[in-house]
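A quick aside before the break. I want you to see a complete sequence-to-structure record at least once, exactly as it would be stored in a machine-readable document. Don't worry about memorizing anything.
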Amino acid sequence: MTHLPSFRQLRFLVALADELHFGRAAARCNVTQSTLSAGLKELESTLGIVVAERSKRHVFLTSIGERLAERARRLLADAEAMVEMAAAEGRPLSGLLRLGAIPTIGPFLLPKAMPALRQRFPDLKLILREELTDRLLDGLTSGKLDGALLALPFAIGDLEYAELFDDGYQLACGLRHPLANRDKITEEDLQGRTVLLLEKGHCLQEHALSAFSPPAFHAEREFAATSLNTLISMVSEGLGVTLLPQIAVDAHVAQGHDVALAPIEGVLPRKVILAWRKESPRSEELRTLAELFRSAYRQGDA
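That is the input. The structure line, written in tokens, reads:
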């Protein structure tokens, strides 16, 4: 008969992995340090491996300990989701749901969706986390997040997802720029131009660069913005032109800035999705949430 570790031991392991300090890990689990140490010793005995090593000054997980901690994090997240799912039987989308979003989607889609979400699912407690794509993917795979609003193309591994909508771009330029006052922008208008983009790490930079195949423009190497608001400010000061996602334009992100906007012909849009772990027990709830986001976007786009 195979002896399995307990959830209590797995919680101890995850706490130690996060804190790298026995005292803090014990406090986080509301147990004494000796209780936590004994629990981890029992875990090591059950598995036949060493999960952590410590010296007088430092604590660190072994290689296998780190891998087990990540697996334990997912197991605990799924166990918690199962409890929430059972408690919410007959009441979909209730209880706690941890949702991530990239900065170029969350601030523009969520305000459209929240009124309908509160009305249809008043018992849902939504915890929002805004991060770059790589960190959101880490949060999903580790179990820290239940779902995340992302944009393709991007390598998301074997995550499950629902497509929400395609998001195109508009060109933003200063009011005195040669491309200002155009009804539309063509690929030829952008050919060979240098365009201001968000700094590396934002998937929107990659999406903008792949908006045409082959690329019609180059990224400015000397300047990069940390947010869309900074990017628009740079454009309004005459430092260059940029591509803004349509969802941000629809939310009036450029309002109050001295910029001219025009739709771009022939652009390859990014695809906005809601993603979650394949094994998540809340998959059906997240599909329902995806449909609500999809509907909120269509209504706002009308």
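Two observations worth writing down. The chain is about 45% helix and 20% strand. The chain has a mean pLDDT of 87. We'll return to this after the break.
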